[in-house]
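note to self: dont lose this again. the chain is below, predicted strucutre after it. 825 aa total, dont forget to put it in the shared folder this time
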Amino acid sequence: MIPLTDTRGSAPPRLEHLLEVVTDGVLALDVQGRPTYVNTRAERLLGRTRNELLGRRLWTVLPELEEAELGRACHRALAEGVPTTVEEYLASLGAWLESQVFPTGEGLLVLLRDVTELKHLVRSRWRAERLAEELSRSEARFRSLVVATSTILWTTDATGNIQEDSPTWCDFTGQSYDKWRSGTGWQEAIHPEDRARVSAAWKRAFAARGLYEVEYRLRRADGAYTPVVSRGVPVLELDGSVREWVGSITDITAQRRARQALEIISEASSALSSTLDLRQALERLTRSLVPRFAGWCGLYLRQGKGPLERVAFTDVDPIRALRLRKAGRLLEGPYAIPTEVLESGRPEPIPLLTEEVLTSETDEARRELRRAFMGMKGVAVPIALDGRKLGVLVLALGDEYRAYDADDVRVAEELAHRAAITVEHARLFELARQERDRAEEANRAKDDFLATVSHELRTPLTAILGWASILRTGTLTPDKQARALETVERSARAQAQIVDDLLDISRIVAGRMRLEMQPVQLVPVVEAALDAVRPAAAARNIRLESQLAAGSGPVQGDAQRLQQVAWNLLTNAIKFTPEGGRVAVRLQRVEEHAELQVSDSGKGIEPSFLPHVFERFRQADGSATRRYGGLGLGLAIVRHLVELHGGTIQAHSEGEGRGASFTVRLPLAAARTSDGSATRDTPGLPDPSLSAYLPDLSGVRVLVADDEQGTRELLRVLLEDRGAVVTSASNSAEALERLKREPPDLLVSDIGMPDEDGYTLIRRVRALPPAQGGQVPAAALTAYTRLEDRTRALSAGFQVYVPKPVDPIELVMALANLINRFARS
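---
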């Protein structure tokens, strides 16, 4: 290759002139990459002057070029001695360069050409080709869409003459293509009543060059009219003139039917929710469906497992409706009651009612009534919810309506579902109302019960306070004093019985009633109860009759609770038996049960109250003018105790004034004793006459701790009367101090005391050494009478638990037994 420059670095004049006029940039580099020649075009392409480039390494002046394709081509040409051509976009120069690199004896010759415009031209041509292909495909897709879609597409020229071929129009209307292109086919296919309105809408849009939109009825190929909506818009030129009109015609039958169905369901829902009365709601439902959705609508419901009954219907023909209402149950509707639809759980079509169908009707009156419904057909839809079959919805229509299709059946199913929800809501509402009534009745019963408790507590309290005040005057004769004391004692025991009943009910409600089960012979238990009520019966001249079979067998139970059952039944019978009446008790064995029956000749029980006789807080007469007292708890306690023993109790009465009988049945228990002998007889309650034989407590030192002065005085008098030496304390601290100073033989302590209760006292006592009374026998005396209270007292350190109110005999016996037990140990 001829050198481009001489030894002085200059090109020959003629060559340099040629290099200056060429359109390519020319750059000569030595082996070090230093430019030795740069023409004017190369200066412009590289953005540097000759003075900036000559003699300096090109990669130093333009470092971005060394990492570009141009730099790599130069290095490769120097290394391998082969020419190279590369093309790349140089961001630093803002141009596309085509670089041709030739190795020379002095280094490299680089020709640079700006190909940016060429690149843009090629890219533009490529884009144009792609756009043409896309337009072609788009046009093909558009034409396919026109053929495939049910929407009719149309175009007109600026004057409104139809231009495009529309095969969809021809298929929809059955018209020929020529008729469509002429424009007359469009007018002919529009319903005559809609033509003027459609033409006026087109003229307004054409004049305003705006949106054309109108709904009308269009005749299909089968001659039927269907609702459509036609929309069109003008396509404008740049100068604002109309080039053409494009638009569509869409069948809106499905949309209109969906809207109508939604309106029907919405109106039906409003009707169903307009009232809480079920029959009124269902009647309004049928009215909302006629005549819009049916010519006749009937709704049938089933109560429980009973037959279907028509509860509501509406007829488009008022005369026919009047005849049907007058017929009553003779004719439930135009068709036989659709029981099979309810059982299958699926909608069933109702066939056309014809004369041939009527011939199967045997009843002439029914046949004549049904004749008014000839020509009607419809559908029956089951009304069900969560698998429960509630009824059937019947929809019928005549020739003036189109026949029901699958969409209409789905609407009917939705209506039936909403009717089912309404029926269920009505049922739940009725249940809630009944529960509310029961709750209100229970609240009234509780209020009445509280008033009764107040009355029953205040009545004996009045006698106690009144006689106590009179006794304090000291003006009564001895016989009147004895009668006063007897009245006070009787009233106090009546109050104690009320408290016991309330505590028993509390245990029953809380589920804490406990029984001490053992084999029990019922004869001694019933005899003890009879002995307890004899004075009350004798006072009213009521005859007690008893038949107690000795072979009635043992039962497994709690003797005290069983005696309570017998006593409650006997006192109840005596209370409601007039003077001179009779109360009979019979105990016998019936198969594998012991049967106790208590009957009386009293006022009896009304049949309406008999189912409630064992309920808590219920009394046949709970008014303020009632003749009989009591809380109404006795029989409720009896029933619960009997059921705890695995038995049953029944009440029977022939009515008011004819007496009543209560029968208790308890399962027998096999006799179980260690020596195989029969079970022992169960003793009854202590006889008050035993007070003369109470143990002597002479010399026994007793410390009594109670914050109530009246209780302390009562215990002092009672124990000193038996010979004991009594010391009393009003609180726990005082009792502990007296006990340390002089340890007693026996400690009797109340539980509920101020500052420190009886539990704290006994724990502090048990912490003392024996010499200071740490092991003194102790009895808890308390008004806390729950089972857990007894357990807590014994766990704290007491050996005996005596509940208030105190029975003097029981208290003395318990304390004497406690002292004897410790004396033996």
